[in-house]
Structures are given as C-alpha cells and as structure tokens.
Amino acid sequence: MHRYMIRYSKKDPARYTAHLDLIRELERSMRRAKLPVAFSEGFNPHPRMSIAAPLPVGTEGLAELAEVEMTREVEPVQMVESLNAVLPPGLKVLEVAAISSATPALMAALERADYIVRLDGEDLPAPLPNAAIQEFMTRDCVEIRRRGKDGKEKIRDIRPGIVKVEVLPAEDGLCLRMELKTGSVMNVRPAEAITALFEHAGIKVDPADLQITRTGLFLAG
Amino acid sequence: MDKRLEKALRRVQKPGRYTGGEWNAVYKDWPNTGVKMVFAFPDVYEVGMSHLGLQIIYHAVNSREDALLERVFAPWADMEKQMRETGLPLFSLESRRPVRDFDILGFTLQYELSFTNILNMLDLAGIPVRRDDRATGVYPLVVAGGPCAFNPEPLADFIDVFIIGEGEDAVNDLLDACLESQRGGENREQFLLRLAKIGGFYVPSLYRVEYNDRVNLEKVEPAVAEAPAVVNKRVVTNLGEAAFPTRPLVPVIEAVHNRAMLEVQRGCTRGCRFCQAGVIYRPVREKEPQTLVRQAEEIIHNTGWNEISLSSLSTSDYSRIKPLVSELTGSQTAAGVNISLPSLRVDAFSVDLAKEVQKVRRSSLTFAPEAGTQRLRDVINKGVTEDNLLEAVSAAFAGGWQAVKLYFMIGLPTETDADLEGIADLARRVLERGRRLSRSPGRIKVTVSVSSFVPKSHTPFQWEPQDNMDELKRKQAFLKQRVRGRGLVFNYHDPEGSFLEAVFSRGDRRLATVLEAAWRAGSRFDGWSEFFNFERWMTAFEATGIEPAGYAHRRFEYDEILPWDHIGAGMNKKYLVREHRRALDGEITPDCRAGKCPGCGLCPTLEIKPSLAGGETVAPLHDSLQ
Ligand code: SF4
C-alpha cells in the first residue's frame, strides 16, 4: 500500500458540505481522477481514506488534512493536478506528500488547530475589552457543558486546551485568532472557547453569528 | 443579499441544500445570456436532485449559448423562517440571485401534495401567487410542466403557462419564443398569445370556464383564436437523439437516489388501467443498446458515481435488456460500478436479471402485483398471474434473497373483501415458498405495502370514485389483522393524503381558493408526514365552501365535461370508455408492444409510432373509434 497525506482547503460553497458528504465527494473525485484508491475488504468496500478532525458544517478550512491509500505509487505532483481538475468549487488540494506506512494515523498525531473568528459589528453588542481576554487566559479552569455521544451532558474543563487568544485588527466588529488543542487527547471546539470567553466578559453573542475559519492543523513533534 | 444569506446558512440544519457548488453545475455569464430561466422543484433539495427530469432540462437549456437555467428547491421550514425574518428573497443555487430577476420561472409538478410549496415559493420570491395580481408589474413568466400538468386546472389561477407532455423539445420552443418576444418588444399579453400557438402550451387565461351548478362543468372553451380547443401533449420522436445529460449534476448532500440514472426507454405499453404514467409517456420509445452503453460510460466517467440505475417505467420490458445488462456488467462491474434495476416486472426473467447485476444480495427485491386476486388483476389489466409471482419469488429466494416487498393497491374499482383476503393469502404463500427454498428459513421476510387507489385523469379509471376514508381505514385494518405474524410486515399510509391527492387530481379551477387558503393557514410540504395537517385542510375547505368529496368520492359520468377534457394525452376518450367497460367486465387488453395494436388512438393523433431498438415498430391501428 502507498499512503499519502493531502492538504486541502474547504471554502465557500464547499464549507457547507457535511463530513460524510465530503467523504463521498472525495471518493467520487478520486474516481473521476482515475486514481488507484485502495478499498477495504468485505461486503461493503469503502475507500481507505480518512479526514483528520472533521470541520463543523459552515466552518471554512484553509489547510485541512486527509490521508488516503493507493494500490500503486502515484507522483504527488500529479495527484495534486489530477484532483484539482475534478474537485467541485470550494475544494482545492494544496499539497500531497507520500508518508511511510510506519507513521501513525494523522488523526492520532494531531495536536493543535488555529482559527480566525470574526464577528460583524452589528452582531457584537459591546466591544470586547483586551483586559477581559487577558483575565480569561489567567483563569485556571474554564468549565463548559458538552453533550457526549450518549446524549448525556458532561461538565468539562477546556482551559488546558486554550493555548492562545489574540485580537487582530478589524475594520468592523471583531477578529480573533485562537490556538486550540485538537485531537484525541484534548479537543476544544472554537465555538466553545469563544462562547466561554464572551460569557466571562459578560457579553451576549449568538454563536450562530460567529464566522469561523480554521487556518491550520498541526501534528505533534 | 450575501450577508443575509450567510447568516441564514449558519442557522439552518443543512445549508448544503441552498449553496449549490455541485460537480457539473453550470455557471453562465449573466449579463451576456439572452434568456434566463430558473427550474423550481417544489420539494426539498434531496428529493428534487434525484429527479431525472431536472437533469434533462438542465442539460437541454444550458447546452444553448443564448440561455441559462439555474435551480431552486423548496426551502425547508428552518430556512423559510430565516428568509421571512430577514426578508431574504428566494434565490437560485447557481448565481444566488433572486428568483424574481429571471425571465422564466418553471415549476415541475410531480405530485399533488407539493402544490402548496409552489405558492410558498412564489411568495418567498416576492411574486404574487395569483396570475391576475401579476398583471401589473414585472415578474418572471411562471411556467409549469410535469405529470400533474395533465390536469392543470387546480393550479390554473397561479400559473401563466403549462407545458403538457415531454419537456426537452418544448423548453427550447419556450426559450426561442421568449427571445423573439423580447426582440419584438412584446408585452405580457402578446407574449402569451405567441405561446398559446405552440403545440403543447396551455395558457389558462385564454380559456372561458363555465359551471352549470355546484358540481359540473358546463363548458371550457378558448376565448381567443390563438388558443386551441384541445392542447395535445408533446412527445419526443427520437429519444436516442434527444438531449440526454451525460454530465449530470452530482448532489452535494446525499440525495434520495445518489447514483447515475440512465433512461433506457420511455413509455410503457402494458396499459394498467389505473396508471397515468402509462398514458402520459405513451408510446413506447426504446433507445439503442449501443447508445446506452456509450452514455453509461460517459456518465460514470463524468461523475465518479459507482452505481448506475437503468431507469424506465418497467425496465425488464426493454427488448434488449438481456444483452444490455450483460454488456454493462462486463464493462462497468469490472470497474467497480454497480448496476441497479429499479422497476422489475413480476416474473422469473426479471429475477434472473437482478441476479446478474447484484452479486451481493443486500437489499430486498420488490414486486408489484397490485391486486390480490386474478379477477381484480384482470379488472386493472395488470398482466400478472399468481404463477408469475410465485415463480419470481421462488427464483429470488433460491437465488439468495431473504426479503421481498410486495406492493398492492386498495380501493380499486370492484374490489371486495375477497380481494383483500387474496392479498393476505398471496403474502402467506410467498412466505411459505421462501421458507421452503431458503437455507435460513427463519430469516425470510415478506413486506406487504398497500397504497390507496387515486383516480387519475386520462386513464380508464378517471371516472371512478375513490373509496371514502372510513372504508379505506376499514380495509387497512382488515389487512392488518390478516397480514401478521413472524416473517410478515404490513405497511400502509394514512388515507388522508390519498384523499387530497384524489381531490386535486380530479379537481377544477374552483380549488384555487382552497389551495390558497390552506397555504395561507400554514400548509407546506404536505407529502411529508411531519408537516401534513389534515385538519387545517378541512378548515380551508369549510371556509371556502368547497365540498372535497364531490371531487374524490363522486362517480363522474361518461357524458359530463371533465376538467381536463381540453388537455390531450393522445388516447381517444372513447377508447378510455371502452377500456373502462372492459375493466368492469374483467376483460384484459393485450400489450401493444407484442405487435398487436388495440387502437388507443394515440399514435394517429400525435403522428408518432412506437419505436423499439433495432428500428422495429408496431403498426398502430387507425382510429376505429372516431
Ligand atoms: S395507437 Fe396502438 S400502437 Fe400506438 S400506443 Fe396506442 S395501442 Fe400502442
């Protein structure tokens, strides 16, 4: 088997494509590109492909990661070209790299994700003071409620997963840059961190107004 | 527009329904395209995108340099809420422009229970729902086509022009007429007169409709010389050469059918007496197998789908089905592409086909005997015997399938409880057969699905009343009692939806007020059980003083004027009367594919002939009934 890591972007309109639909779209794209994708065995073979840290619907991704196995070797540059010729609007492959079969799965190696979060002026009831952010970052515990897979709500401390929050200049409203832990050990969703931050500052914002872009995913080591 | 749209998209459950961006979507240069049309499917994205007609029209229009076609679907309740709150108007998926900016807005009418969505979409687009209210002001021409256009009357007050019959050629005539009308600087009235002269175009404002009492029509007649007394349907003469989309749109979110569709033939010759599709797609026109093999390759290449469905009303009737399936399994299956046969005849031959295409027996096989006794199957002219069914299921069970689905209709003309007993008997016999033949008898499952008969225009049963709802419920309960036990599953729908279907399928222009009232009271997506509210409909009927039973439960007389008499599907009305009488006498009428034309009158009226692969045809009788 030949393993490849794919770095790609997911912008409008593809940012609205949900995870399972994205998998199907990539599968069809690989077939359109006539790439020798490897399939799992069994009655219902599916392509040996996975997406690291699926994006929530609506969140834009500038440098997402996926990995795929091929039955024979393909030149990475050629894979970039042939995929970009058949990807629907909004999806674009930026880079492909061969990875050795010994490397652990991308998902397991994932450590951090960076985000840009924008809020329009009209959606921001009051300016967010810089001091509030600093204060927030000095807290040693930020508890949030999260619904688990079993449907039960659990209280979790996400503070260890918030690496950095900073304000970027914005013409209108607010623009924040955040570094958050992501992966199987510690995983913080940007909307959770932002909501906790605004709660801390005593400002009420509607999470649906957040315009979120994931700018990068980073592997450990 | 964009900011509001973005905000809305972040607040709805499936934003992908509204964003477009499919592979093979066509984006054209708006200012430099002569005529702009938007295709409106009055149901949700996933349903509409599974529809072959949309793909055909999309391809037909967008292949032209001087025209563009974009899409819009009915917004789901969450999106409608966002749109109404923010004033975001209904917009197209491709250019995200307001629907109001287009020259033509074309609805497809696939089922009666989508009618309220049409009104809702017009309203969300900022277009007055009634055509009279559009007389002043600049609005797109509102066009509608599809199966329900064969009785257009309940929608006549809302739609400017109906296109009767097949759309791929007619839509080109529409666009040409629009371009010419623009060049000539015509006003709406002149444009409509121009359209009325085109074959298959029905302009409802150009007809006078009179009623003699609360129940019957007195007359329907053209009010101007341009409008024909009868608008005959359009048919495509050479299907193999007609526009067929080999670069279909690939839905961005999982559609109801997420696979390539290859139409192998159009039309069905079996002549089931309840079936409207069999009438409106007549005569049968087969495509050549070489054409199909080539189109299959192109579609798979252009989409990346791994499944291709050979679609038609009855795929195993296609005369070259065997060689076609062999050829496709040879070339496509080798490349990892599955073939599916969605509509199989009830016989062993069809099961053999299914065996050939399905190496893994995942799903169940579906058969539609429609009625439980030979007597009633003869009444409806369903050429299926109990032996056919038992042979078919035997082949299925022996071939490794463990589940079969059987479709039946209840409330058919002349039906008695003995026919219902027949359904239960058949189901039990099929189950026994399965247990005897299968290696794991305990896992055999037989599902019986019953739908309620809805009388449809232009069929031999158009005069027949629907059973009232109490009677349908009684029949369902009767069957539920008998189709039970291990290995048997019984499915049915509440009869209220079928009742409304019957009202609208046999309705006239007076229904406009009810439709509007129900929609204003909140009716939408009536085909979806989570939205359907029957009481709201009944309130609307009461408020408007319209008696729905007069449409659904009344036996229409042979000599009365039917609301759709001025719409021609090609079959002679006298032939339909004869077929109706034969039905009541339990006499069957043979299939015209076998080479013997029973003289339905369609071929001479529409100047067409059935065409089979290899250039064969049937010699249609000259109308002996006129
Ligand atoms: S006229 Fe004869 S051949 Fe033509 S569709 Fe009718 S029955 Fe068939």
Outline the secondary-structure elements.
The complex is a heterodimer of chains A (about 220) and B (about 625).
Chain A: E1 2-10, H1 19-32, E2 49-51, E3 60-70, H2 76-84, E4 91-99, H3 106-109, E5 110-119, H4 130-138, E6 143-147, E7 153-157, E8 162-168, E9 174-181, H5 190-201, E10 211-219
Parallel strand pairs in A: 3-10
Antiparallel strand pairs in A: 1-3, 1-4, 2-3, 5-9, 5-10, 6-7, 8-9
Chain B: H1 2-9, E1 35-41, H2 45-48, H3 52-62, E2 67-73, H4 77-86, E3 104-108, H5 115-124, E4 141-145, E5 161-163, H6 167-183, H7 188-196, E6 201-202, E7 207-211, E8 217-222, E9 231-232, E10 260-263, E11 265-266, H8 277-280, E12 285-286, H9 289-303, E13 307-311, H10 321-331, E14 338-340, H11 348-357, E15 365-370, H12 374-379, H13 386-398, E16 403-410, H14 417-437, E17 445-452, H15 469-482, E18 488-492, H16 495-505, H17 512-520, H18 534-544, H19 549-552, E19 567-568, H20 573-584, H21 602-606, E20 611-612, E21 616-617
Parallel strand pairs in B: 1-2, 1-3, 3-4, 4-5, 9-19, 10-13, 13-14, 15-16, 16-17, 17-18
Antiparallel strand pairs in B: 5-6, 7-8, 11-12, 20-21
Write structural notes for this entry.
The complex is a heterodimer of chains A (221) and B (626). By secondary structure, chain A is α+β, with helices and mostly antiparallel strands. Chain A has helices spanning 19-32, 76-84, 106-109, 130-138, 190-201, and strands spanning 2-10, 49-51, 60-70, 91-99, 110-119, 143-147, 153-157, 162-168, 174-181, 211-219. In chain A, the strands form two sheets. In chain A, strands 1, 2, 3, 4, 5, 8, 9 and 10 form an eight-stranded mixed β-sheet that branches. Chain A has a two-stranded antiparallel sheet with strand order 6-7. The longest helix of chain A has 14 residues, at 19-32. Chain A is elongated. Chain B has 626 residues and is an alpha/beta fold. Chain B has three domains: 2-232, Rossmann fold, CATH 3.40.50.280; 259-343 and 597-626, Transcription Regulator spoIIAA, CATH 3.30.750; 362-510 and 546-589, Transcription Regulator spoIIAA (2-Layer Sandwich). Chain B is built from 21 helices and 21 strands. In chain B, the strands form seven sheets. Chain B has a six-stranded mixed β-sheet, with helices on one face. In chain B, helix 3 runs parallel beside helix 6. The relative contact order of chain B is 0.10. The chains are: A alpha+beta (221), B alpha/beta (626). The interface between A and B is medium-sized, with 29 and 29 residues. The structure holds iron/sulfur cluster (SF4).
